[in-house]
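Hi again,

Forgot to attach this to my earlier email, sorry! This is the prediction with magnesium ion bound. I've pasted everything inline since the attachment limit keeps bouncing my files.
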Amino acid sequence: MSEQEQYLCVGCGVKVQTENPAELGYTPSSALEKESIICQRCFRLKHYNEVQDVNLTDDDFLKILNGIGQTDALIVMIVDIFDFNGSWLPGLHRFVGNNKIILVGNKVDLLPKSVKHNKLINWMKQESKELGLRPEEVYLVSAEKGKFIKETAAAIDEMRNGKDVYVVGCTNVGKSTFINRIIKEVTGEGDIITTSHFPGTTLDIIKIPLEDGKALIDSPGIINHHQMAHYVDKKDLKIITPKKEIKPKVFQLNEGQTLFFGGLARFDFISGERNSFVCHVSNEINIHRTKTENADELYRNHVGEMLAPPRKDELDSFPELVRQEFTIKDAKTDVVFSGLGWITVNQPGVKIAAYVPKGVQTLTRKSLI
Ligand SMILES: Nc1nc2c(ncn2[C@@H]2O[C@H](COP(=O)(O)OP(=O)(O)OP(=O)(O)O)[C@@H](O)[C@H]2O)c(=O)[nH]1
Ligand SMILES: [Mg+2]
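Structure tokens for the complex follow:
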């Protein structure tokens, strides 16, 4: 083994090499003299927000996680609360062995103030149980804004009981941002690990040493193919991913009216009395109202232009929209479009249809407001 093979990139965890600029982990040999080494891909991500594609497969990432079951550690699973089901890690119980799990809902800064945190936590507990996981505790945080990090970090430190801590989750939920935030709280140093809005930023395990010789460990995100992020172009990720607190938009609709969310999703009000529908999606998504009877034709003629994203040049690879009908049972029900947001329906008995790209999920839940 040559000497440089022992270096790992502090940004993404990949093994550093100085031979081949086209391959993963490349860094010029001059950079090896620096105190902390980052690979060229991380350098470009940090400074130019440009991503170099990697050809690691789902299996490669799963293999990395498979080792966790054999260790004695505390598992912190992070989900994006704005995309709970789309950012769930299916089959996590297979990786964790007998280890305890803490569930952290990240990106709480995006929720409108009207959303009650305790309702969200209860829903997360209930949903986790249904998905086969029983976390010891559920916390909400904003890794980016540093909200509730101190409390959560303290709880993790207590619960780890002298063990390692693995931070796991689907791609893009904010695992690395969360760890950076904890490092910042403790040492004052910022942005150690590379983060970005592109799914698949962290490439291997990154160990942050703790005082007692144990480690806080970042891991590459597993790709959940139900995540809306995988169906839109890199450029459009910025549009569908909310950056600021969501401003709910209220639409008064009559039955027989339809809303389009760009060209990514559609909502039909099939039957019921005139009613208000509250849309919680990224402020940058264009919502277009039309008559349901004209909606199919409108979509055919205008998807990729007026109804965008997706853009015209992406239409070939964009999946068809799939329709699912719901009858709303409770007053105040959220119709959730995984990865895009949700619509709060206020009246029971209303019939609606939700459309999302094939592969993405829709579901209903009791409103969080
Ligand atoms: N609004 C908001 N965005 C966040 C928060 N935490 C992370 N993000 C954003 O989410 C995106 C992904 O963050 P990362 O920390 O790279 O996510 P990750 O889970 O490490 O992703 P992979 O390494 O790809 O698995 C970035 O664009 C972050 O800025 C948060 O608390 N609020
Ligand atoms: Mg990461």
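Helices lie at 40-48, 58-66, 92-96, 117-130, 149-160, 175-187, 234-240, 292-302. The two ends are 58 Å apart (CA to CA).

That should be everything now.

G.
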